[in-house]
């Protein structure tokens, strides 16, 4: 049987290998901006967060989202580089989600929005072999539901009676496993 530490090492390796692809698709911070010319303010939301605003902007087919406290804005281009301020100024907690920051007192936090196309999502399953002796496998699945939490992954284990190690087997489809939070490249 494969040790748990080896499984986690393989899991981290698989996540790291996919990180460069994930980075190009995932929500990624673009910086703090004094003004957001070109982005339309959608209004105030009681429980605003980067995830909530990104989802609203993605549905509006926009490429960028900006948050400042309870306010959310969307647009197709970045604000002017002349309006960039220090990232340290984006230090205000989001309303209702104090562990996430939503811009600052007088500045906006701007994010690039990842693709929402099903073919581009990282909801695919990557099979990693944990042991060649018993031909068992474990799969890693990143969840599109948690796209704003880039370090959340689902470890899927096939039933003990699995006799095949082919990725995509019915055993992997049963999705017996647990959610695991691990750091990805770019999240450290």
TrEMBL record:
Q: Does the keyword Nucleotide-binding apply?
A: no
Ranges where the record places region Disordered: 157-176
Q: Which residues form the signal peptide?
A: 1-18
Instruction: Give the matching InterPro entries.
Output: WSC_carb-bd
Tell me the Pfam families matching this sequence: WSC
Using the record's annotation, list all stretches that form the WSC domain: 26-114
The source's superkingdom equals Eukaryota
What the entry lists under PROSITE patterns is as follows: WSC (PS51212)
Q: Which UniProt keywords apply?
A: Signal
Protein name, UniProt field: Plasma membrane sensor transducer
This chain's source organism reads: Aspergillus ustus
């Amino acid at each position: 049987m494969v040790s748990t530490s080896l499984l986690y090492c393989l899991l981290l390796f698989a996540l790291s290998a996919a990180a460069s692809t994930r980075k190009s698709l995932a929500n990624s911070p673009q910086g703090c901006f004094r003004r957001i010319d070109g982005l339309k303010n959608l209004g105030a939301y009681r429980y605003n967060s980067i995830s909530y605003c990104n989802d609203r902007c993605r549905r509006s087919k926009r490429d960028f989202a900006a948050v400042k406290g309870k306010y959310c804005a969307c647009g197709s281009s970045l604000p002017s580089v002349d309006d960039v301020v220090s990232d340290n100024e984006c230090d205000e907690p989001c309303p209702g989600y104090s562990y996430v920051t939503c811009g600052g007192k007088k500045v906006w936090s701007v994010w690039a929005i990842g693709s929402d196309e099903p073919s581009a999502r990282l909801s695919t399953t990557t099979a990693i072999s944990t042991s060649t002796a018993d031909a068992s496998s474990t799969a890693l699945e990143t969840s599109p539901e948690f796209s704003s939490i880039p370090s959340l992954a689902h470890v899927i284990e096939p039933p003990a009676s699995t006799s095949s190690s082919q990725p995509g087997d019915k055993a992997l489809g049963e999705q017996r496993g647990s959610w695991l939070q691990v750091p990805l490249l770019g999240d450290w």
